[in-house]
Amino acid sequence: MLIHRSIPTTNHKATLAQPKPSIQIRTATPNDQKYLTAALMLAFSDDPIMRWMYPDSHQYLTYFPEFIRTFGGPAFGCKTTYVAEAYAGAALWFAPGIEADGEALIGLFQRSVFDAQQAHLLAILDQMDDYHPHYPHWYLSLLAVEPTQQRKGYGSALLQPVLAQCDRDRLPAYLESSKPSNIAFYQHHGFEVIGTIQAGDSPPLSP
């Protein structure tokens, strides 16, 4: 997840390193969903907030696919999921006005997350809603690159289609980062940290 990207005042393409032109990015189709789910499961297996939610490996493997469908599902339905070649990674974007089903997400957490985390997780969702922009914007719900393919330019390439559209339409983009080590990557692409989301013993999120 991650951060808030202001409408650019300079040439975005001139100031940020671009992905290698050999990387092929395309819009995902319904047939891609099971393959992307597998890649996302590998990529998020060491994610701090995900493993705080699902510390047991069987619990993670059982429920994370449903989390992807619930939290990122609108991106598949609206054709705003982008996939890298050979399913090396994916970016699940929500266009302006599109949101995940909050009730379905809470229902999933009530069924799948240990009781000790329930209240803290609901507090995190409330904080996420407080930070989330309430004006037109693009929301990056999930971005992941399969672990063996990281640091090869796939993450940057997956961001480009929507960031370029944001520049054309002069709209901001928003996300929450669950890995402190990823913040510099997003800052490189024009995002800025606007706060911290955290409850109880949870790892921090950076909106």
In short:
This protein has helices at residues 12-15, 33-43, 48-53, 57-77, 102-112, 115-131, 154-169, 183-188; strands at residues 4-5, 25-27, 81-84, 89-94, 138-145, 173-174, 191-192. It is α+β, with helices and mostly antiparallel strands and 207 residues long. The longest helix has 21 residues, at 57-77.
Features of the shown structure:
207 residues; alpha+beta; Aminopeptidase; 7-stranded mixed sheet; 7 strands; globular
Structural category is alpha+beta
Nearest-angstrom radius of gyration?
A: 16 Å
Number of strands: 7
Q: How many separate domains? A: 1
CATH class: Alpha Beta
Task: Give a structural overview.
With 207 residues, this protein is an alpha+beta fold. The chain has eight helices and seven strands, in the order E-H-E-H-H-H-E-E-H-H-E-H-E-H-E. The chain has helices spanning 12-15, 33-43, 48-53, 57-77, 102-112, 115-131, 154-169, 183-188; strands spanning 4-5, 25-27, 81-84, 89-94, 138-145, 173-174, 191-192. A hairpin with a 4-residue loop joins strand 3 and strand 4. It is globular, with a radius of gyration of 16 Å. The termini are close together. 33% of the residues are buried. Residues 8-17 have low confidence and may be disordered.
